[in-house]
Design brief:
Putative hydrolase or acyltransferase (Alpha/beta hydrolase superfamily); BioH; alpha/beta; single chain; hydrolase; carboxylic ester hydrolase activity; biotin biosynthesis; Rossmann fold
Length: 264
């Protein structure tokens, strides 16, 4: 599946009663990162969507421990019926873990700009040789609004003006809580995680959405997952970077809704 070009018919989607949709944000952000995307989804999906904050991010408390497994367990406990999961970056690692540990609670899984391992090694050349996330963490602690805005603007270089404006409008909401308390702990969890063994446990429909300009989770990371999940669908958005749902919300929502329609 390549970049989505056509709009999804709302008449078709509105006939469907959707399951709960769980969207999990990535490192250093909070649930407001998904605010612009919501407007691009048909009303029933908007009404059934749930966007929690990861521990120590946004308004969520932090007890000093950031565990991907524990977060997946906590989220799964809140699901009473199979849900549609969407995870961005680190949030995708949480979503993948939830889907592997609780397959009965997952209807579909969408991973966007996500990964199973961050750093490269001898049997995983798809990873990064080095990362600047520690530097970014220092910048976030120094001046969170300034550097969050700078980070998001870098992801929007090829976005149209309306997408850029919508992202600028959510920066105050994202930054209102100050820098995440779990910056270091979550980064450590991200750097140490290796979810490759979990891929054999994923049986639900999977959509992989990546940006061809993403330097944090380059497309090769998604291709690694795609090659190991025969049931997965691949969507590469041209001119998108690490936040394709922000920079190309119409194309992203189109691909997502068509995927949900096929598996609802």
């Amino acid at each position: 599946m390549q970049a989505c070009q056509n709009e999804v018919s709302n008449e078709v989607i509105l006939m469907i009663t959707p399951s709960r949709t769980l969207l999990i944000h990535g490192w250093g952000a909070n649930h407001h990162i998904f605010d612009p995307l919501q407007a691009y989804l048909p009303t029933p999906w908007q009404q059934n969507w749930y966007t929690p904050d990861l521990p120590g991010h946004g308004c969520a408390p932090f007890n000093g421990n950031f565990s991907i497994d524990s977060i997946a367990d906590q989220l799964a406990a809140q699901l009473t019926a199979p849900a549609h999961l969407l995870g961005w970056s680190l949030g995708g690692m949480v979503a993948l873990t939830l889907a592997a540990r609780y397959p009965e609670k997952v209807a579909t899984l969408c991973l966007t700009a996500s990964l199973v391992r961050l750093l490269a090694d001898s049997d995983y050349p798809q990873g990064l040789k080095r990362t600047s996330l520690n530097i970014m963490a220092d910048k976030f602690r120094e001046d969170y609004p300034k550097y969050m805005q700078q980070f998001l603007q870098l992801q929007m270089l090829y976005a149209d003006t309306s997408a850029q404006a919508s992202v600028n409008s959510i920066i105050p909401a994202i930054c209102q809580y100050g820098p995440p308390a779990a910056l270091n702990a979550a980064l450590h969890a991200l750097e140490q995680a290796d979810l490759r063994p979990l891929l054999t446990s994923i049986n639900c429909p999977v959509l992989l959405v990546y940006g061809d300009r993403d330097a944090i989770t380059p497309p090769r990371m998604g291709e690694y997952i795609h090659q190991r999940l025969p049931q997965s669908e691949w969507c590469l958005l041209p001119q998108a970077a690490h936040t394709p749902f922000l920079s190309h919300p119409d194309q992203f929502a189109c691909a997502l809704c068509q995927f949900w329609e096929r598996h609802t």
